Amino acid sequence: MYRVLLLLFLLGPALIGVVNSHHESGEWSCETESEIRVQAEFRPGLVTLDGRADDDWNDVEGFEFPLLPALDPDADHVYKAGKMTVKALHDGNDVFFLLQVDGDYLYSKGNSNKCASVALMFQIGEDATYHNMGGCKEGSQSCTSKTCKGHEVDIMHFSIGNAIPGRLYGGNAIDNRDGNGGDRFGHLVDVYGWNPHCRYLDGIGPSGNDTSAQNDWKGAWWHSSFTVHSGFVEEDNPYASGGQKGTYYFEFSRPLRTTDRLQQDVQFTIGGSSMMSAAFWYPVDGNPWQGSGHYTINCDWVPFDISLGSSILTKSAPKSSATSAFALLFSVVSLCLSVFMVYRVSKSKSEPYTPMENL
Ligand SMILES: *[C@@H]1O[C@H](CO)[C@@H](O)[C@H](O)[C@H]1NC(C)=O
């Protein structure tokens, strides 16, 4: 609890700083504070990927961000229902994310633009900027893996219009057999891009396809207004009555490393740092959202750290001091026992030696 308060205290000025950044007409400007970041601690066996965050994520630190329009991060147009909380952890193999946003429940089956939606974006290429999704200067006709080399970004986008809450979407055997980042069931897709006009499913490209690609993401969504917990099916939609106050939860996982050979997936390193962003689409006032009408957590990349597993050892310091106390007690007992044995042996010296055979 204290750590969360301390974090909020430290992050507070940073978040205000983010609000101040503003897209002046024409020229893009972004003032971001160096303190903001998202950290994934090593916490194996904590999270079940079911969209529900009410129990398993409780003692994981969250990082709060105001949601400003991505194309014009003006504080006047902040998403008013609340901030986005980003939580992350890893278990040594997979990295897990939770995106949590307050919002009245809205659902329109088959029409993702009338439902909430989220995306994660990561830097792959060294020259990939947050602004303009990689920032390659080429247009949609001329962007290729060669002309935009170094500007690659990795994107996971989840549009929930066909996704049943609590069910797992993303990489599946059928789409992965086709060798691309698609998800025909729930539209939780694995995408890469060089700029907003040059975005493709992993494996699909302007100058040809490569079927070695996969959708490496998995994820689920939930809303706190749901009362059924035994498992929804499609016929249950819209799953709850519309307009109810509550919180959306989006939960994701991906292997730290993937089999990507095309520079279309970010690769995470334990103890290393990457650059990320998170986006949110919402049908504000019931109006369907447009692709470019999204909110993001910052007007620049947010550093994303994958903590070393050893951080958990530092945490268990009180336990190890208890262990040393036990070790000390154990040595004292052993010492006493040896003194007693020496005494017994020296006392029994007078007793005659009995050969084994006579016993
Ligand atoms: C690549 O795959 C996409 C989607 O399946 C398809 O529309 C396109 O025609 C393919 N391109 C080539 C060059 O085969």
Automatic annotation (TrEMBL):
Residues in Cytochrome c-552/DMSO reductase-like haem-binding domain copies: 54-296
Species whose genome carries this gene: Cephalotus follicularis (Albany pitcher plant)
Signal peptide positions (record): 1-21
GO MF terms, alphabetically ordered: heme binding; metal ion binding
Transmembrane portions of the chain: 325-343
UniProt entry keywords in alphabetical sequence: Electron transport, Heme, Iron, Membrane, Metal-binding, Signal, Transmembrane, Transmembrane helix, Transport
Keyword Transferase appears in the UniProt entry: no
PANTHER family: HEME BINDING PROTEIN
Protein name: EB_dh domain-containing protein
Translocase among keywords: no
